[in-house]
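agent: user wants the full assembly modeled, not chains individually. Plan: 1) parse entity lines 2) check alphabet per entity 3) run joint structure prediction 4) return tokens. Steps 1-2 passed, eight entities, 2032 residues total. Proceeding.
--- entities ---
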Amino acid sequence: MRTLERDQVKALLSAVQSGSIGIDDAVERIRTLPFERIDHIATLDHHRELRSGIPEVVLGEHKRAEDIARLLLALSGGGGGALATRVEAAKAKEVLAAVTGARYHQRARIIEVVPAAQKPVTGGDIAVVSAGTSDLPVADEAAITCAFLGHEPLRIDDIGVAGLPRTLAASEKLRDARVVIAVAGMEGALPGVLAGLIPAPIVAVPTSIGYGVGAGGLAAVLTMLATCAPGVSVVNIDNGFGAAVCAVRALGRA
Amino acid sequence: MRTLERDQVKALLSAVQSGSIGIDDAVERIRTLPFERIDHIATLDHHRELRSGIPEVVLGEHKRAEDIARLLLALSGGGGGALATRVEAAKAKEVLAAVTGARYHQRARIIEVVPAAQKPVTGGDIAVVSAGTSDLPVADEAAITCAFLGHEPLRIDDIGVAGLPRTLAASEKLRDARVVIAVAGMEGALPGVLAGLIPAPIVAVPTSIGYGVGAGGLAAVLTMLATCAPGVSVVNIDNGFGAAVCAVRALGRA
Amino acid sequence: MRTLERDQVKALLSAVQSGSIGIDDAVERIRTLPFERIDHIATLDHHRELRSGIPEVVLGEHKRAEDIARLLLALSGGGGGALATRVEAAKAKEVLAAVTGARYHQRARIIEVVPAAQKPVTGGDIAVVSAGTSDLPVADEAAITCAFLGHEPLRIDDIGVAGLPRTLAASEKLRDARVVIAVAGMEGALPGVLAGLIPAPIVAVPTSIGYGVGAGGLAAVLTMLATCAPGVSVVNIDNGFGAAVCAVRALGRA
Amino acid sequence: MRTLERDQVKALLSAVQSGSIGIDDAVERIRTLPFERIDHIATLDHHRELRSGIPEVVLGEHKRAEDIARLLLALSGGGGGALATRVEAAKAKEVLAAVTGARYHQRARIIEVVPAAQKPVTGGDIAVVSAGTSDLPVADEAAITCAFLGHEPLRIDDIGVAGLPRTLAASEKLRDARVVIAVAGMEGALPGVLAGLIPAPIVAVPTSIGYGVGAGGLAAVLTMLATCAPGVSVVNIDNGFGAAVCAVRALGRA
Amino acid sequence: MRTLERDQVKALLSAVQSGSIGIDDAVERIRTLPFERIDHIATLDHHRELRSGIPEVVLGEHKRAEDIARLLLALSGGGGGALATRVEAAKAKEVLAAVTGARYHQRARIIEVVPAAQKPVTGGDIAVVSAGTSDLPVADEAAITCAFLGHEPLRIDDIGVAGLPRTLAASEKLRDARVVIAVAGMEGALPGVLAGLIPAPIVAVPTSIGYGVGAGGLAAVLTMLATCAPGVSVVNIDNGFGAAVCAVRALGRA
Amino acid sequence: MRTLERDQVKALLSAVQSGSIGIDDAVERIRTLPFERIDHIATLDHHRELRSGIPEVVLGEHKRAEDIARLLLALSGGGGGALATRVEAAKAKEVLAAVTGARYHQRARIIEVVPAAQKPVTGGDIAVVSAGTSDLPVADEAAITCAFLGHEPLRIDDIGVAGLPRTLAASEKLRDARVVIAVAGMEGALPGVLAGLIPAPIVAVPTSIGYGVGAGGLAAVLTMLATCAPGVSVVNIDNGFGAAVCAVRALGRA
Amino acid sequence: MRTLERDQVKALLSAVQSGSIGIDDAVERIRTLPFERIDHIATLDHHRELRSGIPEVVLGEHKRAEDIARLLLALSGGGGGALATRVEAAKAKEVLAAVTGARYHQRARIIEVVPAAQKPVTGGDIAVVSAGTSDLPVADEAAITCAFLGHEPLRIDDIGVAGLPRTLAASEKLRDARVVIAVAGMEGALPGVLAGLIPAPIVAVPTSIGYGVGAGGLAAVLTMLATCAPGVSVVNIDNGFGAAVCAVRALGRA
Amino acid sequence: MRTLERDQVKALLSAVQSGSIGIDDAVERIRTLPFERIDHIATLDHHRELRSGIPEVVLGEHKRAEDIARLLLALSGGGGGALATRVEAAKAKEVLAAVTGARYHQRARIIEVVPAAQKPVTGGDIAVVSAGTSDLPVADEAAITCAFLGHEPLRIDDIGVAGLPRTLAASEKLRDARVVIAVAGMEGALPGVLAGLIPAPIVAVPTSIGYGVGAGGLAAVLTMLATCAPGVSVVNIDNGFGAAVCAVRALGRA
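--- prediction returned ---
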């Protein structure tokens, strides 16, 4: 319950107590306030976000530059941070002209408004790994989102299974990670192989890198879902942002 | 490195130390033992498993009763526990006749060999929820696997979004879960709705319950991957076991 | 708000009024009753259902006979009616043995419990038409559901477009229908053709009747969605029940 | 039968009556006029359209600007209104130069010719809701079409289920709608959730907004068809126009 | 116009002529007889069928034995012939017990009622060829239908392109065919290869014979549609009957 | 056998006859001319082509302008005609600059070189019909190809089944056609409806016109294959050329 | 050219030489013998088969027991060997009763007739590896076919990448293989990983083992085609026989 | 083991021998060097590559010009050769400006750095054939890769099965090839037909050439996988490079 809502109910109950409103009328007034009650759920969520330092994030893909700018300004008002994902370079230029203090991560296509008072960032609990150099933009989206949410990830790139020694060498470094985000296109075999080598859960991100039967990420997403190595779960193709939220959520309140 | 392997290397080094073998010969012998070296990775894994109390699990679906029985006996030798998933009733009957102390969870199609010395089981960190009564076998598979791996889950069933009040009521109880496994067939909307209500990561399990365009779980798996609510990752259709491993891994070493 | 719930709140307010409970405590108790509050939404729904004479319906496909029987008895308790869809003959036999007064519509695979006090049934507002004789079971499911919900439909069968004169003749009889449920398998062209001939909205039901590229209803569902004749909307393959609910809802409160 | 046609038949019958033509010849002449006879069906349709105030609509997508202009002029001749959908901005500019009194709804990509004598527009029977801001163009297409057909809809936008409190709040406002058009991309869960909350039939419009497995609207259309909440029927991806016609037809003659 | 219908109109016109019915009433009565008018189209069709000796055919797949029997009796009444396709052996046995003079083609799954007065059958204009022995049932369905419709086809089997010399040898024999029905499963390459060798149009029938990516005939139907050899058109998977009708129609009236 | 080839063999045989070459050597020379031998099969084909007036046709889609020009010049050498399909406007301009006497059919994207001595063209045996105005380019490709191959087709456009009276009126005019090419996009229902109305075989051409589930022609091609009206066979999406060749082949030698 | 054919041509040339047949007649007779010429190609093939010891193989899946028996007897007549693949146990029993000396490999579903004079079998050039125990039947089909064709393969099973150390250990043993057949279901990642470790070409066989999105082998076949590790080529799902033929062909004549 | 690594191990063993490090410490240090050990596997691979003259190859498709240039320079350092595939013309121009001695194969989209000391190239063992002129770029990619890897292939183009005599003539020339790479788009029937005519294994490359149901190469890849002619294995659509590596690997060490 938000303060406002709590005050409303309190006032109502005081009126009941004082006899200025009858019980039946009070019952009816409580009955007609479903939204506030439900909204209080969202309020609790909001409290959690404030508490854990996770600001809201704007999905920029189908929004106009002016709308993205307006949302970033609103979210970062009062010195907070804000993030917009999937913003193409041309659109980003427009946004940056309107939002002071915003910076653009070009390869990741992310606009970030750094909060005035930078919150402490922990590191190493999450690792973001990628199979090939073409998967880097999606890996970047995941990594920048993690950092924005307070968890600077370990990054290891270009460890696809076609060059297995690289994969094995990397797996050694991943043994202490609490969650691993594994980004891969083409046939997408990396997460399943990793899951057999390390103890952390793998959040697999198929990418749209590929051609022929792998075009658009189809082969990768099917491979990742069908893997017989337990410990792998999958997000949508190219959804580095979503994987980052899964990883940060898994770290939890501690 | 297993003890055996460590002993081999030790003996070799002793021989070098004593001069009974030359350095070049020793280099060559080390070079020709790739398997033990790699096997040592598996060994480390094995150590982790012993340490975290997670025994191996048999996928029973395409195996013969006699093979399942043999594997369960091997795994549970010395008083350990063992698990076999996706075992049909008829096959399970054969297995149980051969494996003393095994029990069969019929709806979940799981055979479990309870370890002699039951390890302490923690509870409540993981929640397993399901959308409809037809999704119960898959939810059972997830829940029994969690418990077997040392984490008795909270269970809430039949909370599909077609009856949203049930979903909302359940979400209140899920606020303290550290990981939520959400099992749903048909259109599979439950995980995305939950992700907007609670802070835990959702491991979504599409089920093959459905007909028409939802037959075999197709609509459910696509919905879960495509959800715009961040915090949902997905395993293969009906893969309750895999979701449980993801959840237990996310709880980590702590 | 159900009576029970209303009584709970009333008691609480009385306690506030009488001073036996403080305002802050009362606020807190209201805050911790989210379910009743949400349930009250369901309650409103329930009121609507009682008012419009639409009892709940059991999807029998993945339920055991004993569960179907138990649900039907609960729903029809106190002389009300109840319906269970997609119940195979063998299972239906078991259910009927347990539920007095239930009857089985074999072709439609529906079990119906007729309410003690039969409510007045209106007719002719809804028409259920089908393309071929193989589509009859799904057309039956739609028609029986409509009747159960208080609207005896007009039935015209076997009017597929391969024999266009039949289609045209039928369309004359459909000019006064307020909603038309059109059931068709194979290439599923009937709804689009009808939409060009009559003023009512068409709720199209693709059926799984077909073979080759039409197997499982794929061609039919795509055709119906892709039709260039406006006025057609589509439900899942074989979902006669869902189409009936759409049609009855469209008739509304009047 | 159009007046022209009726006059033709009358003249023929007069000739029979007067004996100036033999019965066999008259039979033959009637036999050879199939088109007028069939056309009379179209004529009846036309009468209905005039009666209900629903003018024809031009699908502009694959037509050249000059053709769209010509059609709009023909349809709106004599002071009537006319509508062309799916017209890109550049093409629209050309059309507007040729059609006096036409206006362009840019986001909806609709050209509208407002009739000279504006017919009375009723409101509130239809509601058009959308899940996200990216779905607005399709929601606009539906809403503008409804208004053009005489039914100004209630509009509620951005109520996707990832932010469930918004959905619930909106559902309260939808309780009196007679038909709800629900527009959603990504995973398309909104219509199914709404159907569990409100009594009106839902005409669901999947949009092509989405990426990865949701690209082109695939996940949304499957989800909407597969929903287990009865009361949802679906039109083609992005087909806001078609949904509007369904809704207006459902309101019927009353 | 059928005799019956013609008589109706004649009577009406006589009444006009005699003055016993007014012209306006007569106009109205003509207006309300759309079906007969449209039916006259069907009547013309029927005339063509009588003229060309093509009786109707029953699709037996989803019909009960008793319904098939009833239809065959009706169609063959008065000494005519009749055909029912896709009738499984067990069902056929029931049908044959009820329909005197019917015979069952087991491999083709066809029941045939030979007409009392056998019409002259021409031969050689149509050829039915098949790629492998597993395609024989579908080739049989095509061939028996052709013969039943008055055109005994040339049969050449097992000429798949994996053994190209057989294909080439067969192509020599096909040079005089006016239409070739080519039946093939697996990769379905036969029709395209034949089209490059012979002058006749090829009606290609993909069969459901195949496994893996060819399961259900998918690879075959795509290959046949995608062939770059002009002169091939395709019917549904396993639709030997449909191909036969295409071929007989192509021979036309001559 | 081409003249050249025939001369070669003749010379060889003359040499045998005159004794200037031994029999074994002659056998060997015949053995080592596989191509001519095989080419003689093509030669027979060529003879048929000359006899029936059907010149070769160039698929222009993936060829460069210079290659198309060269092929057209080669094919039309000596006063013959030639055709190139699927040539975009820009490329066509280049080709026309290089090929004297060629003309470009813009909507059909066809370049035609009219033969010096125009062969007599028959008309009316083939009809080309289309469902909507967007299908016209493909219908044009079919019609121009037919005419080029000596058969001027009857054209009837815009007779899609959403406006059934147009379809019925057109079907009257199609009763004398020997083959009907039916071109349709969107849901592709036209061919199946026509097949129930007229005696000619229908060569159905799905077009890529459509959106959502009909995008690229998917719904149309499935509908046409799955139609339950016998007498329809299907070519690839947008393949008007292929349909024309099927139709002309069906007319045969007569 | 077969002897018979050669003799025919010789006789013809002799007749030319002696003047008993004119040159034009001889040209015509050569023209009319295309088949023998082409058949001679098949003859060469046959020679190759005799030379390399590769007898024909019967695909038993859609053939009746009696047909399989007949074919095996024909192929093995004169003491040769013969093979029939995809023969279910019940059918195999019937075949074995009719074919003396045949044996049945149950797991591989192969019937083998061992030739009277066993040809020398070489070993080790081909390796057949499999990912899981469920893939064994397909691996067996490949291995038995290889041995039957004269190449006893090295077998290593259960080396799937989920247990990478096994894979790595196996790869050491595969370094000397000239061709590796890699059989895998589920996500099918084994061939791609192996291709990065060993120099031989990998013939990948996806199996139908899998469930959910991997059902029927879909994920496996896509993964194998999409792998970014060069050196992998793929055969149809479960096609162990085809892979064996590829491998044996690759060993060639040497 | 690389020299560096070997030296490390040697130094360690010397320290053991001299007693300057204890055995347990040495064991531990060996345990902590997994990468070098695994790297030694890669090292062996590298040795093989040097031995067989196969340099690494850069996949240029998703890389920037500067990255491609850098990689080519690194790979060709010291006078070696290097190859980059899938480089568009504009990007290639940039690369060539930076890499001295590189040349661009435009149709194949390959950049090649010819090694200083050209290694001897053998010819004729591999054949690269293509079905149509549109398949030439992919055939070029395969052929140039083969040549770069030391095997100049035989090239035969435009031998698609729609003109079977060309196919047959070509097959004569392919009888001595040890591996045949067959490139085909559209329906992709060429590899299956060839496999029935020649003894070599066929590595089939589907191309993305095609339209309608063949768009993107779908029909071709399915046809090639489903072919019933044994001896065909398939790589990804347009993957000429991968096919070349398969072919060169099949030739092996000899």
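agent: reporting back. Residues 1-5, 31-53 of chain H have pLDDT under 50 and may be disordered. The longest helix of chain H spans residues 34-52.
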